[in-house]
Amino acid sequence: MKELICITCPKGCHLKVDEETFAVTGNSCPRGAVYGANELRSPVRVVTSTVVVEGPARRLPVKTDRPIPKGKMFAVMEEIAKLRVKAPVAVGDILIPNVAGTDGNVVATKNLQ
Amino acid sequence: MTKHELVVIGGGPAGLAAALAAWEQGVRDILILERDKEAGGILNQCIHNGFGLHRFKEELTGPEYAGRFIDLVKQTDIRIRTDTMVLDLTADRILHTVSPQHGYEAIQAGAVILAMGCRERTRGAISIPGARCSGIFTAGAAQRFLNIEGYMVGKRVVILGSGDIGLIMARRMTLEGAKVLACVELMPYSGGLNRNIVQCLHDFDIPLYLSHTVTDIRGRDRLEQVVVSEVDERRNPIPGTEMVFDCDTLLLSVGLLPENELSRQAGIEIDPRTNGPVVWENRETSIPGVFACGNVLHVHDLVDYVSAESESAGAAAAAYLQGIRAEGEEVRLIPGSGVGYTVPQHFHRGVENVEIFFRVRNIYHNAAIRVTDGEKQIARFKREHMAPGEMENVRIPKVLLDRIAGNTLTVEIEEAAQ
Going by C-beta distance under 8 Å and a sequence separation of 6 or more, which residues neighbour residue A30? Predict the structure, then answer.
């Protein structure tokens, strides 16, 4: 049994998830059951960071445009750390496609003029 | 002296939303004064996602959320003057400002919206003993260094306080290669959102020490060690429970204070519970024509609620400029048992409905919010879960408001029977 706190809503139910059947107990709504099972099968997270800007602005904020496997977070960070960008960049511009072998792209979250 | 119909102090999420709402209500001469180099406020450094779930039904980062409002402002004739500091605000709505571009300038405003936000409590505010070495930052200052300026503030980090900014910084510093040794919380519960405890601490195996605090800081020039002790029910450190952490950085996430120097200078009545102005249901302060919204009024957890509150303040300022005055006998809202404060603090009898925002003082399960007029219950709202870290709100419709006999309305928590 794996114990989790549900992050679907502010209530924060304490879930117990069976590692083999992915059955969830302790949830008070169906969304908790879905979260609990997914969290054990293949947990995913959006990664946000900043990249170096060549120019007067110092950093440009970025994110992965979809949640990527939790285990790939540091690999994604390494690729983001290597990136250098120059203006102009618009919100949503893809800066690194398929980052670290995931199906997520690193995109800009701010305009850079 | 220059004149403007509406002057908004602060170009963060509150100021932007308030200005846009006033524009939509027909005000055409709107000036936003922002002390930073760009609009967007604190959202610019909040690069993590999770903003806008209520507002836009999607998870945005801080800069994206701010960007959407900045884009909307650009489509209007609302002017944003950046690099501008408001030095003084008077009761007759004269603003004394200074900026590199315009030098000193006095501005007469028809109406003013206060949207200055809040700032962090510092080491001085919580009186931590020990050495006065470098390496001690508020979590928000470290966030600005890292996300805006591009500097890492340390390599081995202890975080005091489990507010959301501290939790977010625990993850951010870890992703950037620092070792976060512990998050230490004085209270027996975290002040942050549960989702942040999971995503920012559990994901990286960072221990959270509840009912603990920092009892000593050691280091000559740079921080070298912090001592953490368990505390008893009265929050006094328990001797013999000391843990020593070797670290170079201590981040403080120990609360936020609305930034109301200007409000005080103007003589606006301040609520000691919120540290923000006392406001009516339309967010008008004790000075007619001066409105307040966002974190300068009371500290919010979600920017979505800041935007909504600011829109009503903006619309109210527009109505004021059009000569419409909120009228009616005063009904005062009283924070009763279990309730820390209410916003608004009072309202005019006869209004359509009143939405009351407040914070509870403890964690409650299966409790109820009771709204009473002295002895008589006006309304009762069941809640499965309430916590001090999560702002509550209830809406009282006119049909119930009309039943109030006296001049006060009390909001209190009714605990579940054991």
Answer: none
Torsion of CA B237, B242, B248, B251, to 10 degrees: -30
Cβ pair B63:A59 closer than 8 A: no
**Which of A3, A4, A5, A7 has the highest number of chain B CBs within 10 A, making it the mutation to test binding with B?**
A7
| Residue appearing with tokens 């200052």 | B141
Residues A100 and A63 in one domain: yes
Which CATH number belongs to the domain containing residue A87 in this structure?
3.10.530.10
Q: Could you give all domains of chain B from N- to C-terminal order, each with its CATH number?
A: 2-119+257-326 (3.50.50.60), 122-254 (3.50.50.60), 331-414 (2.60.40)
In this complex, how many residue pairs, one in chain A and one in chain B, have their CB atoms less than 8 Å apart?
A: 75
- B347: which 2 tokens? 């309202």
Q: Backbone dihedral region of B289: left (phi > 0), alpha (psi from -120 to 50 degrees) or beta? A: left
Give the nearest partner residue to B150 out of A28, A58, A73, using CB atoms.
Answer: A58
ipTM entry:
0.89
| Nearest residue in B to A92, CA atom | B64
The fraction of chain A above a pLDDT of 90, given in percent, is: 69
Query: Domain range holding A30?
Result: 2-41
CB contact under 8 A, A73 and B175: yes
**DSSP letters spanning B383-405:** EEEE-TTS-EEEEEEHHHHTT--
Please name which of B246, B180, B181 lies closest in space to residue B219, comparing C-alpha atoms: B246
**pLDDT score of B191:** 81
Inter-chain CB proximity B63 and A61 less than 8 Å: yes
Query: How many of the other CB atoms lie within 10 Å of CB of B98?
Result: 14
Residues of A in contact with B202 (CB under 8 A): 5
Contact list, B365 vs chain A (CB under 8 Å): none
What pLDDT, in 10s, does the model give residues B3-41?
A: 999 999 999 999 999 999 999 999 999 999 999 999 999
pTM score of the predicted model: 0.93
Name the closest residue on chain B to residue A8, using Cα atoms: B195
